[in-house]
Amino acid sequence: MNKVYINQSFEPIASPILSANTYSQIAVLVDEHTKKYCYPKVKALLPRHTLIAIKSGEERKNLETCSYIWQQLTDKQFDRKGLLINLGGGVIGDMGGFCAATYKRGIDFIQAPTTLLAQVDASVGGKLGIDFNDFKNHIGVFKEPAAVLIATDFLHTLPAKEIRSGFAEIIKHCLIADATMWEKIRKRDLEKQNWAELVPHSVEIKKRVVAEDPTEKGLRKILNFGHTIGHAVESYFLKQPRKKLLHGEAIAIGMICESYISHKRDFLDEQALYHIEEFIFSIYGKAKITSQDAEAIIPLMMQDKKNEKGTIQSVLLQGIGNPVYDQKLSLAEIKEAIHYYSN
Amino acid sequence: MNKVYINQSFEPIASPILSANTYSQIAVLVDEHTKKYCYPKVKALLPRHTLIAIKSGEERKNLETCSYIWQQLTDKQFDRKGLLINLGGGVIGDMGGFCAATYKRGIDFIQAPTTLLAQVDASVGGKLGIDFNDFKNHIGVFKEPAAVLIATDFLHTLPAKEIRSGFAEIIKHCLIADATMWEKIRKRDLEKQNWAELVPHSVEIKKRVVAEDPTEKGLRKILNFGHTIGHAVESYFLKQPRKKLLHGEAIAIGMICESYISHKRDFLDEQALYHIEEFIFSIYGKAKITSQDAEAIIPLMMQDKKNEKGTIQSVLLQGIGNPVYDQKLSLAEIKEAIHYYSN
């Protein structure tokens, strides 16, 4: 967990690690976007290596794609001293990490996140996995990468939509851990945010929380703020091609709903709820969620990994910067919150 | 690793653990054999639970069966506080353990090995995994079970062939770690072996080695004696239905071949080689391996997980009880050893 290196460009953080190369073989996992926009900046820094290219998209984060990756490593006769570098967003990092962690019972991997979302969230904390049927990250393991190399230059390669998606996790980190930074970011447009400040800030919060509770027995659960409802919303819309939502867009919805429930329980005052809503709507707009959609979304929450014994567990806010976890939600509360969001 | 409990019957070792039940749900994984012969002895001891039944056989130790197990856990809404009890041989333990270790990034599992092979080998040491295409245990993780419950009574349910297969690992443990016990067992027929003594003896050797080197960076490799050649022989014959070999039968072949190579390198004297051959042939007979078979077997060794940088690594004996690991084998040596075995 101390092996997170952040810099504007990739070269100064990658070179010290890769020049001390003790690996028998190296592979770089990319999708069509990172192959085109990021790999050229990385290629020259690497010793002889294999490129493994998969198609982008959450809908490909599954066992079938894992089989393809495992087969590529097998065909190239990767042994246990091999290294896989995951160059891409959350899908590449989660799935590539899972494949590395399970190939021959585990080879080293390096996370080289290229999206804002992956830089401030997915690449730190050792959660790896793939989707299984309707369920996000249902199959996976906890394992730390050999290193996380975060080059903020890669953010320039991203479409605005991707930046917006990643920003949701930054908002989350502020809401659960830093009221001062929250006051700062909520007064700026998305275009005015300072990534050179916010990326390390988010990484520090996440590292601190994960270090205290690596396998999510307790404190780490606070990182799931917005995710109980948000994940279910994301899973639901994944099946509805006409209105697909990016992860952060779904989490933004989840944060409003869970803030509303926090307010209804008298944990969060009205003004704070208002600020959260106002800022999130200004960036993400409002997704259309009908009451029919809501009916289909709720059962998906039952499979959330944070649940225990058939209840739906979530994180609520007792004021900005002060989260509480293991909060049971009732179905009525969830319905009301989604209704509140939509109206 | 201290959680290995051995007793003649299942009840006294299982009850203390299962009565302190802190699990939200329990599932028992069985195959058609353990469902019939072992599950009835276990059922009454368990609180309410789910039975997950799969078909037996190494050829089903694959991703497809994992998907079935994951789906069963999902359908029953198992959460992270669920428990999976793997009641069966090596396939059930390795695959059930892998499914538990990856379901929602890991739930607890208990190994309840019912075969001699699983009791003295597979259930101890935290190696979990499944086969992938032609490659044995190619996808997996290292993870310790919550407990290992070894009831030697289950051995009475086994056909002689299964006892013979498991005995190969006991022979291996003696050859790599206890010359005195080797002298004792090699002078007895299979029917005269004392399982109540040999099972805890083998478990102790394995536990000691694994405790020193859980992820097989060094010492643990000695447990692979007989397996470099044996695994490849097993993989090869898995595809040849007319002459399928059990794991231990293949390892027995591997131990003769690797002992022969040890002798050719002047590590092992002729008499020791002769004793090994004599005893193994007396129990396992001699499998027919043609030179054509040998040609097909050798490439399979290239994918062995113990290899590094394209070489074939094995464990040799510098005398009984004194193994050396990281010994590179040449293709010529391997060919000669298989030829020696067959002639």
UniProtKB/TrEMBL annotation, chains A, B:
Residue ranges annotated for the 3-dehydroquinate synthase C-terminal domain, each copy included: 166-307
EC id: 4.2.3.4
Superkingdom of the source species: Bacteria
Every 3-dehydroquinate synthase N-terminal domain range: 52-164
Key words of the record: Cobalt, Lyase, Metal-binding, NAD, Nucleotide-binding, Zinc
A GO MF label: 3-dehydroquinate synthase activity
Cofactor(s) needed by this chain: NAD(+); Co(2+)
Protein function: Catalyzes the conversion of 3-deoxy-D-arabino-heptulosonate 7-phosphate (DAHP) to dehydroquinate (DHQ).
Name of the molecule in the record: 3-dehydroquinate synthase
Source organism (scientific name): Rhodocytophaga aerolata
Gene name per UniProt: aroB
